Amino acid sequence: MFYRETGQYKTSYEADSSIFPILQDRIGIALMLIVAFVVIPLAGNDFFLSSIMIPFLIFALAAIGLNILTGYTGQISLGTGAFMGVGAYACYKLTTYFPDVNIVLLILCSGFFSAFIGMLFGLPSLRIKGFYLIVTTLAAQFFLEWAFIRVGWLYNYNDSGAIEVPERTGFGLVLTGPSATPTTRYMVVLCLVVAMTWVASNLIRGRIGRSWMMIRDMDIAAELMGVRPLYAKLSAFAVSSFYTGVAGAMMVFFWLGAAEVESFDVNESFSILFMVILGGLGSLMGSFMGAAFIWILPVLLRLIPESFGIDISVATLEHINFMIVGALIIFFLIVEPHGLARLWKIAKEKLRTWPFPYA
Amino acid sequence: MSQEIKPGEVLLELEDVSLSFGGVRAIKNVGFNIKRGEIRAIIGPNGAGKTSMLNVINGFYHPQEGTITYKGVHRKNMRPYVAATQGIARTFQNVALFKGMSTLDNIMSGRTLKMHRNFLWQMLYYGPARREEMQHRERVEHVIDFLEIAHIRRTPVGRLPYGLQKRVELARALAMEPELLLLDEPMAGMNLEEKEDMSRYILEVNDEFGMTIALIEHDISVVMDLSDRIVVLDHGEKIADGTPAEVSADQDVIDAYLGVAH
Fold first, then answer.
1. Domain count along chain A
2. Which of B214, B245, B261 lies closest to B37 in space, CA to CA?
3. Bridge partners of A72?
4. Could you read off the pLDDT of A235-260 as tens digits, one per residue?
5. What's the ipTM?
6. Does residue A310 form part of some domain?
7. Are the beta carbons of B96 and A218 separated by less than 8 Å?
């Protein structure tokens, strides 16, 4: 009843093509940003910030990256984990060589390395499609995993074979390492994720985003309208890998603190892909929803028995968790194969006309 | 480079074009021309090679023999992308819209080649990229008005009925502001009313914008009414070429359509 566009007239094309054309949506997003930027840092405890919010945001960014490639350009990839790894290792090397440079800048720079590698492994997409492309991206995954283990230079020849995040400062604060507070890390992650989401939405609604979607929906017609498949596909691979690379670097530097090759294995690729599919292909909002579903839901499920005072062993809890999340994934995909974002959209459309849907 | 072609002069000239797929010869030594400003129909029974002909013109197929001259320039084998940059647009026999996008985005996609803001501006959106986007939006809205599809502006095209999809596809091609518009069965599967609407649009496009149109259509009465000149293909060969009156009096054409006793 309160979600109505009645009386909201658009008098310019600018207003008509804004991301949130309805006033109530704008209020909603503003409230969410206020909660994210003000309420959560003030009210959230360390556990909530560093074990729920930070990984959630990082996974959401990785999901946006994969969504650009899979949801918007229609090129399926199973190399997400490895591309995250490229970002992480690149950032580690960069900060080894340039310890005094602001780490946020280095994280963004490491995205370019990942973008380059992504483009390289995206080259086969010009010739092959669908399942066959999955196999080539899987090759990228395994090759890069191999490189992360075998090329000692990448982890500075540590005995452990892991990359450990050194303490780095920026903006007058300790940003990474053990002494960085969760609130600082959360705020940095949040700023980066919000800014990059905004940039992604800009790309998507413009010419470049349209050319990606044209390639996805009908590549023959796209070429006829003047889209060069080479440019469109490779730019999608580059942008997508940039996002996943930055997400990977943030994952190590702002969340895990140390990482080995296992953090970037094919399971990581799968879980990001699940986030994208479950959240909604071709939807930025869906990327956040999918990340929330795959990451936050299990954490909450783990907390429920505790809060009721039921004593279950950790292993049992983990198994129950898998079963519930698995069942929910199936349930949601049966209800709406286009993901949570589509469910959300349908709900909003219903709400627009409620309680008189035929009026 | 390409010269300016005035109305009535030859825009596209095909000479002795042959196209084969393995052992199948789809087009055999066909030659005809399209003059600027005319409506040129290509007709013929099923499998005559009409669609292959369009595919040759806009670069999907590369003929093994023959020459194509477009705007006075002899043309090498080219990619469809290059054909698009030279002002050739087309619609497809079985609608080839971008199913996941709205009507508006589909038509905006026709403006792709005319938009030039680079990646960095696109990232920022606000500023030059948005100004450019809005200029093109205005052009697109003219096309939307012209084809009377304002009410479905926001609808994903996958949800539209067939007749409207055909119209959106025409809109997308018109948004490219092409010099040569290729229409592959624009009226297939339409009812009488929709056909009349579509005919009206085609005539208006030709009249008002002076757009050159090459059209494939099965409905002979429509073709006779619309087109200035008709080329008739049968089994990959040209059997007639001329005005509607000449073509309809041609014995070969009548045989091809009605069949003859062998």
1. 1
2. B214
3. none
4. 999 999 999 999 999 999 999 999 98
5. 0.90
6. no
7. yes
